[in-house]
Amino acid sequence: MDYQGNTPLHLAVKYGHPRMVSFLLQSIAVEVGITNRDGLTAADLAYSHLEPGLQYFLNPRVVVKNCLYWIRAPVTLAAGGDHVHLYSGMSNTTAATDEDPKDINGITVTTTIASVVIATVTFAAAFTVPGGYVADDHPRAGTAVLARRFAFRAFVASDAMAFLCSIAATCFLVYGGAGQVPRRQRRLYQSSASALLPPGAQLMVDAFAFGIHVVLGEANRWLVTLVYVLALPAVLLCFPGIWARFYLGTAIWQRAGWRGLVNVHRRPESLHEFLWLFITSFMFKNLVRSLFAVLISVTFVVCIALNIALPDY
C-alpha cells in the first residue's frame, strides 16, 4: 500500500493494466472493497478514469472497468452520483450526458457506410449467382445451374446471413441516429449495429470464397484451395476485437462463478432486464464475437477437404 492508501489492485486499475488486474483478482486473498485515503475503491478508480462518451471496448481502461463490473466490485458513494446505479443492470457505461455529438455522429456515419456497402454487395450477389441460370427451354428453367453443389449452398447461406446482418445494422443505425429517440435507446441501437457489422463483413468474405469455388469448379482445385487459404486470415484478423481476452474469464470465474460470466448475480425483475444483463456479460460479448470466425474457418476447412476428396460434391 502506498502513501495514498492505494493497494496493488488500485494501482493496476489506475494505470489501466488488464492483465495485472486479472492476475490480482484470481487470488481470493485480494480484497476488492478496500478504499484508499480518498475513500475510493478499485472500481471507483476504474470509473473515474474513463473519459466521457462512447468507449472502444478494447480500451484497456474499459476492459478493466468491465472486469470489475462483471464481478460486482463495490462502488462507493464517494465516486459520484453518476456511478451509484451502475449495477442495476441497465447501464454499464459512463454518463451519457457527457457524450460528444460529433463523436457519436462520426461513429454512426462510418458504421452506416460500411453496413450499406455490405448490404448492396450481398444483395447484388444474390441475383447474379455464380454459374448462371438454367435456360428457359430446359427443365427447372430459371433456377441456378449449380444449385446442388455444396459450395453453392454455402455461398447462398453466407450471402443471405451477411445481407441480413448488414440490413439489421442499418436499421439500428437509423434509429440510433434519431434525436427523438431516448439517449439510452440510441446507445443500445448503436451498440447492436456495431455488434452486427463484423459478422456481416466476415460472412461477405465467406460468400466470396464460396462463389470463387463454384466458378472455378473441379478444374482448378488447387486454385480454389489457395482462395480459401487466403480468405481465412481475412476472416480471422479483419476485426482484431473479436478475439476475447479469455484471461479475464479466469478472474471472473474465481470471483463470481458462472453468475459472473453470464452477468446475472440476482434474479432479474423482467425478461428485458435478463436479456440486457446477458448481452452485456463477459460470455456473450467475448464468445459471440469469435463464434462466426470459428464457424467460417471450420466451413473453409470442410470445403477444402471436399474440394480435394470429392471435387464433384
From TrEMBL:
InterPro entries: Ankyrin_rpt (IPR002110), Ankyrin_rpt-contain_sf (IPR036770), PGG_dom (IPR026961). The chain crosses the membrane at residues 107-130, 150-175, 222-248, 291-310. GO terms for cellular component: plasma membrane. It is a multi-pass membrane protein. ANK repeats lie at residues 4-26. The keyword Cell membrane does not apply. It comes from Panicum virgatum (Blackwell switchgrass). This is PGG domain-containing protein. Pfam families: Ank_5, PGG.
